[in-house]
Amino acid sequence: MPERGSGAIVVVDYGMGNLRSVWQALVHVAAGREILVSADPAVVSGAERVVFPGQGAMPDCMREIEVRGLHQAVLDAAASKPFLGICIGQQMLFEHSEEGNVSGLGILPGVVRRFPASRMVDAAGKRLKVPHMGWNEVWQRRAHPLWKGIDDGARMYFVHSYFVAPTDESCVVGITDYGIPFTSAVARDNIFAIQCHPEKSSPAGLVMLANFVAWKP
């Protein structure tokens, strides 16, 4: 996963989580394209399009973004080029998180909330575990180019204890039910972000990544 020139699809590396699976999935769907994993703000700034994934706790992720000098590069990418947020890369786009009571990047309006323990039961009354881990359905709230070729209600892979709660309903493009209905995908202008892991959600996830590679917002 070398770092080379500009014009690439860049996966932002801020030290949180193994990003190799994201890189491998993009290489699989973007034949012939340069796919980089980089912690260099200049490489992120020179990218044609940016993928912002990650795993871990929100306070740690926000700290590492600052320590590595990536904050402004991520803000600029989200303002100017095709941008895909994955898992906590979706959560960090919002203003504030209950996890650690920390501020996010503030790119999208809303907060990040923990699944409420009192409502973690399924239709049969069985207790649901947190984190929400495994396959679940994603229901499309409105059309979007990244949904092309993906069935409404397609099952995708989740691992999380927190979810985004946008204050602007117009940005909600996908919902999922786990004890409660929660926002699982958001979009605005050149930004698309999803709570699940498309790189682990074959075949629908690979279709989504291929759509991102071809997307011209």
Describe what this molecule looks like in 3D:
- It is a single chain.
- Strand 11 and strand 12 form a beta hairpin.
- The protein has helices at 20-29, 41-45, 58-67, 71-80, 88-91, 204-214, and strands spanning 9-12, 35-38, 49-52, 83-86, 96-97, 102-103, 110-114, 132-140, 154-160, 162-166, 172-178, 180-188, 191-194.
- Helix content is 23%, strand content 30%.
- Strands 2-1-3-4-13-12-11-8-9 form a nine-stranded mixed beta sheet, with helices on both faces. It has a four-stranded mixed beta sheet with strand order 6-5-7-10, covered by helices on one side.
- The protein has 217 residues and is of the alpha/beta class.
- The relative contact order is 0.17.
For this entry, give a set of tags.
disordered N terminus, 6 helices, 13 strands, 217 residues
Strand order in the sheet with the most strands: 2-1-3-4-13-12-11-8-9
Number of helical elements:
6
- Distance N to C terminus: 27 Å
> What portion of the residues fall into strands of 2 or more residues?
25-35%
How would the global form be characterised? globular
Rg is: 16 Å
Instruction: List the helices and strands in order.
Output: EHEHEHHEHEEEEEEEEEH
Global structural class = alpha/beta
Oligomer: single chain
What is the total tally of β strands? 13
Mean pLDDT metric: 94
In short:
With 217 residues, the protein is of the alpha/beta class. It has 6 helices and 13 strands. The longest helix has 11 residues, at 204-214.
Layout: helices, strands, pairs:
Elements: E1 9-12, H1 20-29, E2 35-38, H2 41-45, E3 49-52, H3 58-67, H4 71-80, E4 83-86, H5 88-91, E5 96-97, E6 102-103, E7 110-114, E8 132-140, E9 154-160, E10 162-166, E11 172-178, E12 180-188, E13 191-194, H6 204-214
Parallel strand pairs: 1-2, 1-3, 3-4, 4-13, 5-7
Antiparallel strand pairs: 5-6, 7-10, 8-9, 8-11, 11-12, 12-13
Helix pairs in contact: 1-6
